[in-house]
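Data availability excerpt. The first of two example chains:
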Amino acid sequence: MPCVTYDAAPLLADLMPWSVAPLRPGRAWPTAPDPGSLKARWDALLRAEGPDREALFEPSRTRTLTSAVGQLPGQSTGTERLARAEGPCAEPVRVLAAPFDEQWLIPDHRLIDTARPELWRVADAYQVFTVETADAADPLLVTSLLPTLRTGRVRPLYRRPGGEEPNLAPGLTAHLADRLGGAPTSPADILAWILAATGPDLTVPLTDDPGLWTAGVELGHRMLWLMRRDGERPKLPGGRRPYVRAPLPARPLTLHFDRDGETLDLDEGRISPVPPQAWDYEVAGVRVLETWFTARTTAPEPGTLAAIRPPAWTPAWTSELLELITVLTLLAELRPRRAELKVTSTVTATDLREAGILPAPEACRRPASVLDHHEEGPEGQFALI
């Protein structure tokens, strides 16, 4: 846990005022660790008719086969009611389905109970989503993918597509730049500081010490890179890189960690070296590697759409597992540096109020009007937002 000073520190909710409640998928089958299974599930749904289609769909109070909803922003899907839907599956998109678990989702509004269209409107290559975790050690996650995990509120870095209009209290960037005498204070730099310095109570101690700020921003950018996994892939030093030492079985059922030997056993398959800090990495009290493995190996209820899945463990999952071990190891190594980030010379919430930065205008807490084109509504109707 970071050893920082939180007295009079502003809240994250004040510095990044626009937030959205997490998505609520409502049913598990439109999400999967591989895209091929999703297309097969969609085809199976459309082959079924009447009560069989309804049972496979798994209706809820929010979504049934007769629900009338429009397209998700930026996605091309049908808008007719699912009871008479035809056509191919929408191309699955990559999402963050659980902490550090990237999966695939059918981006069809008819399948998702609460899809949060305002997030889809600003999801692009420039966007970074900050997700509250309720975890004392790591209170925030960041991702370039649309987050569908069940956690706290989601705070996009930008309020508009294309990296336009940072989701920061108006005047904050200029005020920090002035107090820091020209140290880097771009929106991405401020987010990096937030990631490195935010406390368990979601307060963000700010500093006007240029050296401390630069060190915190550098640490936060490293965390951002590891969590987003954009660009060059992270690697451990040569002698510490995990490899498959014994072939993984076609359908592993058990996961066991040998702490002394630093090996991860998937039945008779074996990966090593696996540092203990990777195995021990938890978010909100849940071990990341175990939940990742469970999502790919737990047998679903027979006869459901979720039961349609790959017949065997895929090479892609092996590659993802090796990278996940690497990411968790490198993030764990940053925790001591976070503990050393002691903020003593602070820019307090009172300072920001006196400068007219806080409280942020109420409009900053609502979604921006981002569209200059039509979105298709239910049954092919169009709406201008």
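And the second chain:
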Amino acid sequence: MGDPNRLLLVADRNGEVVGHLVGALVEASEMKPVKVATLVSMYVQPAHRRSRIGGRLIAEFFGWAKEAGAGAAEVTAYSSNAEAIRFYERNGFASQSVTLRTSL
């Protein structure tokens, strides 16, 4: 709970938790030459989507990341989850890589 490299945000509406965001910082390395903030998990209850809660959570995440010295932020979404991808793109994220997989 006291780890400055971890973030937990909750969205509260009238005493009810209606969403959350979990973030983590990864220090720069040879593979990633800048400190990166990773959006690990995010969820907003369906009844509260489209009410700007997700955007506010991301704005807080970006603020935390900048204050911590991160030079970039990243998030991973399933390619089939077009709604999530559009949401992240509206909030400043852009595709960087594609992972292809096959069953063996």
